[in-house]
Amino acid sequence: MTGRNTLISRFPYMRQDFAASLVVFLVALPLCVGVAVASGVPAELGLVTGIVGGLVTGLMRGSSLQVSGPAAGMTVLVFEAVKEFGLPVLGVIVLAAGAIQVAMGLLKLGRYFRAISVSVVEGMLAGIGLVLIAGQLYPALAAKAPDSGLGKIAGLPGALRDALGDGTGLSSLAVAAGTVAVLLLWKHAPAGVRTVPGPLAAVGLATLAALALDLPVATVQVQGLLGSIQPPPLSAFGELAGVGVLGTVVAFTLIASAESLFSAAAVDRLHPGPRTAYDKELIAQGTGNAVCGLLGALPMTAVIVRSAANVQAGARTKASRVLHGVWLLLFAALLPGVLAWIPVPALAGILIHSGAKLVPVRALAGLWREQRGEALVLAVTAVSIVAVSMFEGVLIGLALAVVKTAWEASHVKLEVIDKGAGPVDALLSGNATFLRLPKILDSLESLPQDRPVRLDLSGLHHLDHACRTALENWAARHSAAGTEPVKVTAAQAA
């Protein structure tokens, strides 16, 4: 009895954490496998990343209730990296990204990720969601997906037409559609039934249907846990000298870090417990990614679906996420053959549903009514990711957000006082930048050429070099018309 009391005193919330860990495990299992298959890597590598997320990142400080693992938001980028550089180099990329995350955490840069435009992050997730949906519709139709995002979208009508005339395609489409239907309707099931997480129920029912009806659908290819782990060879590290690989490392780092820290902020709103230490969380995420890279596995991020399930299941400490890693490890070690029964179109249905949740249709409509500039940044980022690629799309979104902010910050007012005789007074106030230069010059050039002008710049808080030069040139031109030289009152020091 004394030993039990000691255990309870050391782990007062073990019962709640144990129950929550089982729920998170059941949510994470189909998602880990689905993300791996969609990323073009062995299914077991998704489990490896989930295990590391529980046993390594889960033990570290940062966000106590946030759960890490392979994320749907990284699927498109990982697939492109594997296709372009190969699976061995993926481990190097993930390891390098993890090392950078640890360095940023040590330099206390984690908090600055909160300064990234929310519209860019939501646009990034929306673009990922669109590409993910388009890409996963092909395995749902038993078809081969084109390489580019635009190609995937353009090829869908033809793939659907071919699938409708083929027994295998129709079977795959039925399994995928049934999976999505279960996910959508699961919230209406009786409370007792809903104790089984929706993703697990959807995949389980799809697997049973495929087996019972002997449907001609593709199933997950299984290699075994140890067979799938392939640490990157030393020769693969030489690829870091390439610009393409370095750009992918940067993309992995920024996107994984932003997604994890934004997820942490969302999870903090779900519970009254300790708040996230952003720098420590970045170190934890980086450490986990470094281990995943050494094992040749997928990159990890904090995943809001698993984290929310953890909180809602009553977790109180980080023990729940560590235990979920234990259950994933036991499953991968003892029951890997079960994966071979899972239909690929069922996993496609899971990811199509996940991709749809990444596209904030309602939020975008509200944003368009209230802040059209932010809505434009979100939409342009998403479309750029679909049309070009993940990395370039995010850069385009960030550049547009910076330009939008600069435009909004450069408010300038020109007040003209003309009493009908004598000099004309022109008073500039606010922030005069090159973005507002056309408006300023149009107003000044419309002033009477035959009247002296007094230009008062003392109300300006900021005057950039482009504006200063343009005003000096305008003053020279106006004075050359035969009138008195323009009298300029200097601006405040910037």
UniProtKB/TrEMBL annotation:
<feature type="transmembrane region" description="Helical">
    <location>
        <begin position="167"/>
        <end position="186"/>
    </location>
</feature>
<dbReference type="GO" id="GO:0055085">
    <property type="term" value="P:transmembrane transport"/>
</dbReference>
<protein>
    <submittedName>
        <fullName>SulP family inorganic anion transporter</fullName>
    </submittedName>
</protein>
<keyword id="KW-0812">Transmembrane</keyword>
<feature type="transmembrane region" description="Helical">
    <location>
        <begin position="198"/>
        <end position="220"/>
    </location>
</feature>
<feature type="transmembrane region" description="Helical">
    <location>
        <begin position="119"/>
        <end position="138"/>
    </location>
</feature>
<dbReference type="Pfam" id="PF00916">
    <property type="entry name" value="Sulfate_transp"/>
</dbReference>
<feature type="domain" description="SLC26A/SulP transporter">
    <location>
        <begin position="15"/>
        <end position="381"/>
    </location>
</feature>
<dbReference type="InterPro" id="IPR011547">
    <property type="entry name" value="SLC26A/SulP_dom"/>
</dbReference>
<keyword id="KW-0472">Membrane</keyword>
<feature type="transmembrane region" description="Helical">
    <location>
        <begin position="326"/>
        <end position="356"/>
    </location>
</feature>
<feature type="transmembrane region" description="Helical">
    <location>
        <begin position="376"/>
        <end position="403"/>
    </location>
</feature>
<dbReference type="GO" id="GO:0016020">
    <property type="term" value="C:membrane"/>
</dbReference>
<dbReference type="InterPro" id="IPR001902">
    <property type="entry name" value="SLC26A/SulP_fam"/>
</dbReference>
<feature type="transmembrane region" description="Helical">
    <location>
        <begin position="240"/>
        <end position="262"/>
    </location>
</feature>
<feature type="transmembrane region" description="Helical">
    <location>
        <begin position="85"/>
        <end position="107"/>
    </location>
</feature>
<keyword id="KW-1133">Transmembrane helix</keyword>
